[in-house]
Specification:
With 103 residues, the protein is α+β, with helices and mostly antiparallel strands. It has helices at residues 2-12, 19-26, 39-47, 51-60, 68-76, and strands at 14-16, 30-33, 63-64, 82-88, 91-97. It has one domain (2-97). Helix 1 (2-12) crosses helix 3 (39-47). The chain is globular.
Length: 103
């Protein structure tokens, strides 16, 4: 099941700036993932209720909620921030990226 789910999630990764993610932050559903961790791996773990992996990521800081100073900076310049994200109801997981992908 994990391989099929991972393949499906890979097709669902989208890219946005901060503005569309703000509403998910407001409802406390937004989780930031460290760039060294795969969005797909986290998505599979959430979907399959893999509490061991999720707990490890949370305890190590590889998965966390945004902090106020980050949110303030993103709000000040929402168009300059770029994220890759996945929606796994009720959660949204995102990785901050340096800039837009080249066209």
């Amino acid at each position: 099941m994990s391989a099929d789910l991972a393949a499906k999630l890979r097709t669902e990764i989208s890219k946005v700036n901060w503005s569309p993610l703000y509403k998910h932050h407001e409802r406390e559903a937004l989780w930031l993932i460290n760039e060294n961790v795969s969005l797909v791996d986290v998505g599979v773990a959430l979907a399959e209720n893999d509490t061991k992996s999720i707990t490890e990521w949370l305890q190590s800081g590889l998965m966390r909620k945004p902090v106020d100073v980050e949110v303030s900076a993103w709000e000040a310049s929402p168009e300059s921030q770029h994220f890759e994200f996945l929606i796994l109801q009720p959660f949204v997981i995102a990785i901050e990226r340096d800039g837009p992908e080249p066209k």
